[in-house]
Amino acid sequence: MTGHTARRMVTASARSNVPPFMVMDVMAAAARIEAAGGRVIHMEVGQPAAPAPKTAIDAARAALAGTPIGYTETLGIPSLRARIARFYAETYRVPVAPERIVVTTGSSAGFILAFLAMFEAGDRVAIATPGYPPYRHILSALGCESVLIETTPATRWAITSEMLLAAHARQPLQGVLIASPANPTGTMMSAQSFARLIQAAEGAGINVISDEIYHGLDYALPAETAARLSERAVVINSFSKYFCMTGWRVGWMVAPPELVRPIERLQQNLAISVPTLSQIAAEAAFEGRAEMEEVKRGYQENRRILLEGLPPAGLDTFLPADGAFYLYANVAHLTDDSFDFAKRMLEQAGVAATPGADFDPVRGKHYLRFSYAGSAADMREAVERIGGWLRKV
Ligand SMILES: Cc1ncc(COP(=O)(O)O)c(C=O)c1O
To answer: What pTM was estimated for this model as a whole?
Structure first.
């Protein structure tokens, strides 16, 4: 050290010690192949290949050319909150007061706000495995405990009211997080099992958070909203998936009336407000639903190509692909290490998928998640490449 005091290392907090997202490692490996001139079919990333609705982009352009982009009210632009409330009436025939809508920086911020508003440090929250990893990682960073409930085909890969109450009897739970359609499986709960689970949870004093980010992308059965069933449940949603607006970072919550003010105080301090341009675009996105329905028809076609094409190619066991844009494939007949399998499939077949270990610490070694949010041509090529590769290995 020249003339300076010796540099002392900063010690990272224990709570920051959350696991990485393995999909990022797959993406980095794919990028290296592409940088060297190779072609990769990207089925690892859970984001639409299509852009935001034209109505959203036009509204953002017009806003940029107009008044300065300042902060907004912490709970969101009032007209956007009203428009989101109207969406519940239009889509589900459920009246929701605009005062209960909180606009957030993607659903990701919605989870942080919901967990902070509902739980104390040390509280226990039930989550299904396989499941979206940030649920448990956000909870652990906030000092809460996630209680992983293993799901199987016996309950169609969902937590049932019986499983929840059994876990609660073993050691009390303060919360349960449900997602239908789910990530990584794409599997949905029937309206009846969804309602039974919410009723059982609330009967036992367990707070419910319903991640509805994949609503709108339902193929096998219609998605049910927790907003119909309970005013106590927190509903979390986003413009990222159905509206193809991942990078705009805008989502929303439907909060119980008594949590709106606590969430507002939290968001005032944590974020001030959500990016204004994104809120303006989000409001206009609702007028672009015809365009988004076209995108959804593309996912349906991709889903068909994979469900018909992958079995003869050598991958024939999937969890029920009811919604979202994921296929969760069992590869136990091919490997005991899906991370290594994904790496080899990327290097040798040029198809990137996400190893299941991201979503299920125990059984993930036998699963791969494929995202079918890309083009139909890519799906057909992926089927061919995977088939050709599996015939060789
Ligand atoms: C199940 C689920 N919930 C939430 C998110 C977070 O999305 P965003 O913060 O973009 O709304 C994702 C993203 O992939 C997801 O798959």
So the answer is: 0.95
